[in-house]
Specification:
Blueprint lengths: L1 H35 L1 E4 L3 H5 L12 E3 L6 E5 L5 E3 L13 E3 L4 E4 L13 E3 L4 E2 L15 E3 L6 E2 L16 E3 L4 E5 L12 E3 L4 E5 L13 E3 L4 E4 L13 E3 L4 E4 L13 E3 L5 E2 L15 E3 L20 E3 L6 E4 L7 E3 L4 E6 L6
Parallel strand pairs: 3-5, 4-6, 5-7, 6-8, 7-9, 9-11, 10-12, 11-13, 12-14, 13-15, 14-16, 15-17, 16-18, 17-19, 18-20, 19-21, 21-22, 22-24, 23-25
Antiparallel strand pairs: 1-4, 2-3
Length: 355
Amino acid sequence: MESLTFSIALLILLLNSFAFSLNSDTDKNALISFKNSITSDTNAILSTNCSQNTSVCNWIGVSCGLKHGRVTALNLSRYDLAGTVAPHVGNLTFLRYLDISSNSFVGMLPFELSKLRRLKVMNLGTNSFTGEIPKWLGSLPQLEELYLYNNSFLGKIPSSLFNNSKLQTLQILRLSSNKLSGSVPHAIFNVSSLREIGIGNNSLSGRLPIDMCNNMPNIKFLSLSRNQLEGQIPSNIWKCTHLDVLSLSFNNFSGSIPREIGRLSMLTELYLGYNSGFQGGVPSEIGNLSRLEILNIDSASLTRDIPFSISNMSLTVLSLSDNSLTGSIPICQNLQQLYLDNNKFTGTCFIESIL
């Protein structure tokens, strides 16, 4: 009986050892394929630090888990690499962190990356990737941070990207500086876990939904600047109560600036400039933003007087150039930068603190 028990234990040990070796070979083969897909390694980073005769866990930019020895992170940011992403990277099934940003990778993202079911962070920013943003990104169940900024992605932002909104995992979405078009998917505003949305400098059009902030209690950073968005800024913007930075500049927004912005008590930076369709002036409620440091509403067809309430704020930068503002300039004690050129001011300007 003891002999049988020992034999079973030995068999289990051998099977585990075989499985470990097989899995290790899978990761190694995946990374070798990735390395072979690199067409330019200017600094010889991979050729000198990724030998096939050593464990991949000792390769530069590679981290492995202690328990299974599987590859859990691949960080090759800013290594001046060029090439494509090999489909075999999808075999790194224990991968949680992937960062190949600030290189010169090209081509489309291979479908095989959809197998990275444990991935939490994907950073492909500042490369030359092309094609549409893959719909399968929405099937990664644990994805928390997605960075695709500064590439050449085109087409619409796929609504499927937010299929896992019920899981509430996605926290950071950065898609700025691509060639994206179409409207902003309504589904993006139903992901309550989102803390940062950056989709500026694209060619997005259409209107923002009037209920855009009903389900975004955690959003702190929202940048939709440099697009072709139109219509009014939704008055329910105040429900994004944790907003720290709001940038809607360089669009085609019209109507009046909603007074409700004055209820965003956590706001430190507000950019609304270069929207030529605005009507009226700066709402006095903006003076309630006691934490606001930067206020920029240049070239926005503003009229009327600057509200006196601004003098109660702790602004360090105030930029209201190229409007039709009138009246006197309020005193702002903490200002470091002031831009008010090309307006219709009268009276006395009190800016001793700047001088």
